[in-house]
Amino acid sequence: MKAMKIEVKKFSDGIYAMKGISKKTVDEHLKLYQGYVNKYNEIQEKLAALTQDDLSKANQTYSYVRELKVELTFAWGGVVNHEIYFGHLGGKGGSPNGDLLKQIEKDFGSFEAYKADMKASGLAARGWVWTAWNYRENRLFNYVGDAQNSYPVWYAKPILALDTYEHAYFIDFGAARGGYIDVFFENLDWAKIEENFSSKK
Asked: CA-to-CA distance for 192 and 174, rounded, in angstroms?
């Protein structure tokens, strides 16, 4: 198997001037993202180096193959989740427009109802919340994930990601996760989320 290597993405400079989310939080958070990229590349190299002997010892209880395959999903989840998250931060908040707003109003009743559902989901989640387009049901839904690799939800593409791990907010908000979620909305770039929605299929 050939190893695939990925590079760290560059995000908008706006993430360093957000309301309520400090530069220190962003800097520390980006170090974690860099770590996921590094580990993904490292695991890819180890998978490429597997021998026939390693493959023959694969086992569902414990084996080197299982360990690498499972941890690759965790590292990959950490990469993708953070790229969605930082990709739509650094904006001016407000609300979406056009087709996305119409879809939110159709699926949630109103934008305010959507935000309330998203905040409740964020308070209930152990790791992540995604607003995703379920292309089997043809609707938006807020999904909860308790770990980097508890996604995907089948037939669903995330268009917005909310990190609810403590590292995303503890420096600025302590245990007050609800305050962080409120500020998260104030820093969204809805134009980027609308792009994610328009390319949902």
From this structure: 29
Amino acid in position 120: A
Residue 119 CA to residue 138 CA, distance in Å, equals 22
* Tally of domains in the chain: 2
Of 11, 10, 86, 83, the closest CA to residue 40 belongs to 83
Q: CA-CA distance, 150 to 128, in Å (whole number)?
A: 9
147 with 72, same domain? Answer: no
Question: Residues 151-191: pLDDT tens digits?
Answer: 668 999 999 999 999 999 999 999 999 999 999 999 999 99
Which DSSP state fits 50? -
CB 140 within 8 A of CB 104: yes
The Cα 170–Cα 24 span in angstroms is 11
pTM comes to 0.95
**178 conformational bin, left if phi > 0, alpha if psi -120 to 50, beta if neither:** alpha
Exposed, middle or buried by CB within 10 Å (0-12, 13-18, 19+), for 120?
middle
Query: Is residue 80 located within the same domain as residue 102?
Result: no
What residue numbers bound the domain in which 35 lies?
A: 23-87
Q: Are residues 108 and 183 in the same domain?
A: yes
